[in-house]
Design brief:
10 helices; 49% helix; 9 strands
Length: 228
């Protein structure tokens, strides 16, 4: 895969690393590669998934060249595919851990919010749903994820004011569960993923996840149906 590396470890953890050499834009190609890696993890019977980015960044969001390129069907298709991926991660049958090496912006932060366990590096970075700051609107799909993960006041602040959260502020708001030193990020995330493999009953996890998230998954699917 061109921009995504996949590896299944002996501990049952499948690692999916995005790296396009730039900001990990969630282009149709990147979205397709992450989806294919999830297919591979599921087919191989991975016990958990660890999703990460490249040094300093998880993802800067959708490819703005496509958003602003004048081809509305292409742009809407990319947006739909992005939130379909988020819905898949939120409902994935195995635990999903995100290790964010840095910035997670727009669709990047929505993808992060879809994971079960979310770790961020203690580096200068921002976690932001920045749509209203760049002339766009936050779609209902994004609002559903913000409302599900953040406190009510922070969900409103994140969406309406496009507030840029640093790592510790992001943890307090609900974007992240832990902030760790950058050199320990992947090892810590892998520990959390391996613990999920060993400590959780796979079927119990799958059924309870779908039951607990029935409402937000319904909101996501309804929002996806509205796109384009």
């Amino acid at each position: 895969m061109g921009n995504v590396r996949y590896q299944l470890g002996d501990d049952g953890v499948a690692t999916i690393a995005m790296d396009d050499g730039k900001v990990n834009a969630l282009s149709p190609g990147m979205l397709g590669e992450v989806g294919a890696a999830l297919d591979e993890a599921e087919a191989a019977g991975a016990g958990a998934v660890l999703l990460t980015g490249r040094e300093g960044i998880f993802s800067g969001g959708f490819d703005l060249r496509i958003i602003r390129g004048g081809d509305a069907p292409a742009a809407m298709g990319m947006v739909r595919a992005g939130f379909e991926l988020a819905e898949r991660v939120l409902s994935f049958p195995r635990p999903v851990v995100v290790a964010s090496p840095g910035h997670a912006v727009a669709m990047g932060v929505f993808l992060l919010l879809s994971a079960d366990v979310r770790l961020g590096a203690a580096v200068p970075s921002r976690y932001s749903a920045n749509e209203v700051a760049i002339g766009l609107t936050v779609p209902n799909t994004g609002l559903a994820l913000l409302r599900y993960r953040l406190t009510p006041s922070e969900a409103d602040r994140a969406a309406v004011l496009a507030h840029p959260y640093g790592p510790e502020e992001a943890r307090a708001a609900g974007f992240l569960h832990e902030v760790v030193e950058p050199g320990a990020l992947l090892a810590t995330a892998r520990e959390r993923a391996a613990a999920a493999v060993s400590d959780l009953d796979a079927e119990g996890h799958r059924v309870t996840k779908l039951r607990a998230r029935e409402r937000v998954l319904g909101e996501l699917r309804a929002g996806i149906a509205e796109i384009g």
